[in-house]
Amino acid sequence: MNLAGKTAVVTGSNSGIGLGVATELAKAGINVVLNSFTDRDEDHELAEGLARDYGVEARYIKADMSSGEECRALIETAGACDILVNNAGIQHVAPINDFPAGKWDAIIAINLSSAFHTTAAALPMMRKAGWGRVVNIASAHGLTASPYKSAYVAAKHGVVGLTKVTALETAREPITANAICPGYVLTPLVEAQIPDTMKEYGMSKEEVIEKVLLERQPSKEFATVEQLGGTVLYLCSPYAAQVTGTTISVDGGWTAL
Known about the structure:
Blueprint: E1 7-10, H1 16-27, E2 31-36, H2 41-54, E3 58-62, H3 68-78, E4 83-86, H4 101-129, E5 132-137, H5 150-169, E6 175-182, H6 188-201, H7 205-213, H8 225-236, E7 247-250
Parallel strand pairs: 1-2, 1-4, 2-3, 4-5, 5-6, 6-7
EC number: 1.1.1.30
Enzyme class: oxidoreductase
Keywords: Oxidoreductase
């Protein structure tokens, strides 16, 4: 696919989906910029490990995705952004009438507004370079809904809409914008929830996975971070040059229901 030497900025990428995507990009020879809101030694060590393992340039840049200014500064500090993967996100579950206003504001800021700010900062770089890819990590909840997740569902639907607008504004340029909509993905965060859920429902691990976590995922299998990274790579490849303004579901059939 000859993507070696291009630079990808992946937001929210010191763990989980973001780190998995960044790793797959590094394997393909793409220079990567990792990001989160912390600034720990282990954050920088993740970037150093990718550089060492795959022979690419890799950096970690701290930026709080709830701040529009810091989102834009992340892209400017990166210095180049051929591939932008907007992945940062948080979650909170509560009925609408009990949903804390501060949680709503934080989820909209981090899950949706951050993608607007990073995209606005990255597009001029892509236009100057003559090539670019915007890949937004949305969710099955960008296409459907669940109760008690009002802010998350609203934000992810917004990400899908932003993706379409970005695609239309760049349709006559060698720049594409697409959204990936994962269902449940096996990450350390999800794995950590399993023991408590087993206790709560009095179920075995296998029952929790099939009947609780993957209740809406017909395949009854988690997606993996490697699969999501591969999907990002596809969208960056020449094969996807005319794929823009759309969503790709990686959800085991969830949104087919």
